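Duplicate of earlier report; Cytochrome P450 input re-posted below.
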Amino acid sequence: MTETRPAPADGCPVAHRTTEPVFDEAYFADPYPLYDQLRTAGPAHRVTAPDGSAVWLVTRYADVRQGLADQRLARHPKYNKGGYSGIPLPEDLRVILATTDPPHHTRLRSLINAAFTRRRVESLRPRVDEVVDRLLDAMADTDGTVDLVAALAAPLPITIICDLLGIPEDERGAFRAYTDGIVGTDPAGAAQGCQDMVAFLKRMIALKRTEPDDALITGLIDARDQDDRLTESEMVGMAFMILIGGYDTTLSMISSGALALLRDPERAAQLRAYPGLMPAAVEELLRFEAPVQNAIRRFATEDLVIGGVPIEAGSAVVLSIGSAGRDPEQYACPGRMDFERDDTTHVSFGFGPHFCPGAQLGRMEVGASLRQLLIRFPEMTLADEALRYRPGFTFRELSTLPVVLGKQAGR
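Output:
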């Protein structure tokens, strides 16, 4: 970890190494004490990420927000001059939304935006409500402890995003196994997960060429085959980003939101009494427990300064969204949930060109899940405080969330 020391002549603070932060099980379980230490020590720190790569970690809200929109922090790996290794991506995932910059990113983004128009997302609301009700009905029929991750947080986004893409129900079983590898901290497992997902998507694309429908994969095929606006690899990459982005972040938001409410019965009771607060509650939960803790790495295209710390061209930079959401310089009492907070801004969906295109859909799924969960199971309690988080530097995700449902409302 580093802290800033005043520089002599040029007035630019110099990064000074102190204790190296450790991203271990304790961090995965509760990253916020480490973020507090890092923000106090300085705005940017040279650290070793869990995959062994050296990166600059930026922790303060103002710097993170500015960095998300700064075009000098590019996604394309051609700017990588600092030896960052990361995940070895398959050829078909070398040029995707997450690793491109304008103008190429702008072209791809315009196509994916068409899949997430406000009208199209709003048309999914009845389907989201239907799936939530069905999943809660199945939970109600069980006895004893229920795992909210397996019973609700995982199957809801899988169902909705696969519906959107047009993936048949009998093809959805292996999907979570692929993503488990992709978002973990083991580079070999991540690489294998990416390869498996690419093979899966190519098979789905081949299927939709013979059996077209009105879903999104068929739309991508039309853009590729008729308008020639997508290469074959770009089409695979687009489907990949929609699947990963629409699944893991929403799973995390639902499970982390449910856990936060279980641990704060006063806030849960407030939402039951005033359900109109749910949209504000979703925003506050996104700030409080950001599903993406650390944004995908960027590379400095030139020598620059972040928060007074000089960053060399070619260095890998990671913007810590989780830390930004708990910055006391931005939020009063950031470690406490407040559904009537004056400042509801956050960067949990990103900011700037890479703002999450599926943000509206994610908000809808989280709101529907938590609203019905609170109404139907007012006596629900946490079954075990010893919770386990899946190792991950980018996503923060509960492996399981065991709860005792208690008596259902009205029964």
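The first strand starts at residue 2 and ends at 5.

Merging into the original ticket.
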